[in-house]
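Usage example:
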Amino acid sequence: MNAGIVARRIFRQFLRDKRSVALMILAPILVLTLLWLVLDTDERAVEIAVIEAPESVYERLASGGMEVRALPESEAQEALNEAEIDALLRWDENRPLLMLEGSDPTNHSAIRTAIQQAMGVNLRDVVNVQYWHGSEDMNIFHYTGPVLVGFFIFFFVFIVGGVSFLRERTGGTLERVLTTPIHRYELVGGYLLGFGIFTVIQSLIIVLFSIYLLDMYMAGSLWRVIFITVLLALTALSLGTLLSAYAKNEFQMFQFIPLVIVPQVFFSGLFPIEGLAGWIQAIGKFMPLTYGAEALRGIMLRNEHLGELQWQVFMLLAFFVLFTLLNVKVLKRYRRL
Amino acid sequence: MIELSRVTHTFGKKTVIEDVDLSVRKGEVFGLLGPSGSGKTTLVRIMTGMIEPSEGTVWLREQQMPKRVLMKRFGYMAQEHALYQELTAKENLDFFASFYLRKKKKERIDYCLQLTKLTEDKDRIVSTFSGGMKRRLSLAIALVHDPEILILDEPTVGLDPVLRHEIWEEFHRLKNEGTTIFVTTHVMDEAEKCDRLAMLRDGRMIASGSPSEWKEELHVESIEDVFLHYGRRKV
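Running the assembly step on the lines above writes:
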């Protein structure tokens, strides 16, 4: 089988190319670890200045995990102006006034909740709060984690697969291989097979690392996660090899990153897009990473089964098949037959 | 063995091959001469089925190209190296041989390595090879499945005279065994070693014949003079 011959060669070549192996496996691990270090924190300590507050309020604020400073008004105003503190609380005609610094929206709600608690209106005292999915300890790293795992696998497979196919084009070996009796689909199939084996290994290592060492939240089963990441990796591979036909050199291949990869990050669920206009949300429907990220979140955060994720799996498969068929067609440029 | 009839090819608006007729007989060494940019490589690619000509037909062994089964019948050596730099010489050969051969593969690989004097270097990574060694390996790949037809695009570029001589001896040995060889070249002493020659200029075939016929016809001493004669003359 000619595809097997191609796959075996890719495997050999790839094992010699230590840098690419490292790029596919170590780079995602490194970046995920850095993100874990940055994102996996409890809510950031908020600094707040209090002016002429009753002693009880002051104590309750301090016990609520906030850094509280008692400052004279002018100094507090200055600190707020320079963004050294996040908020100031002062009494205006016996009514507390909370002035937020305001340039960092991520801590607005944290401050408000903290103040509410300090003022004695704790939601937990009134309502019994429970979690259907996830848990109280979940933070931004746990929520974005599944998307990031999907994204890094997608990104690095796209680059490595695309560049290696590009090198075949520019080095003349692609044309040379097509003067043998190989079918075009066997060549593309060989590529998918050879790299496919690597993407399985890559997915396994990255997913195991994220779950067991970075302690990423994992409600579902491992094999379901691997199934989705491999499917996502194959989609990235077929897209990378297809687009390599439109690049003349490695640099032009990298020019696809802002065009093809970065937009997918925005629409894949890293940022909330539910509130956007329908047509903007629809852009995400044309991006494979959207479906991969939805499926990974479903499995890792909500223990969804593949049956519930049929649509996402179907769409990933559809992208994969489409890109592969286009690739076989584009190879006609090198040999009509 | 190779027949081209009224072949014309255009890239966009530019005509690169114009109305070329050519016939290579079984068991001969046929040389295609022409200055760079004359369309030699395009013509070779048309023969190998990589390009389907805009007009005209190509036959290989009385069968019309492009046809996938015919791909097995010829060995091809491109002008660029077209080798996998990360693999060893033997792995490169093995990869290409696998598309054609099963049982005799190992034997043929060893034979072709020996023929191109690469046996000692067979386990070296190709990126460490010199230009000449890469040429020899490309040639070994073209020969590995013992094809009836060899299509070679400037096969001896960058080789030293000794090796060039040895390779031409091998061509003649293959020819005597019945292999048909088509080469492009602009090395004139190689042209002398061909049975028949054709000259391409600006995509047109402007002359053909045997080396001795050419020299007689133009009353010149060497093929180099013939080349200069046709190369300069405007049609």
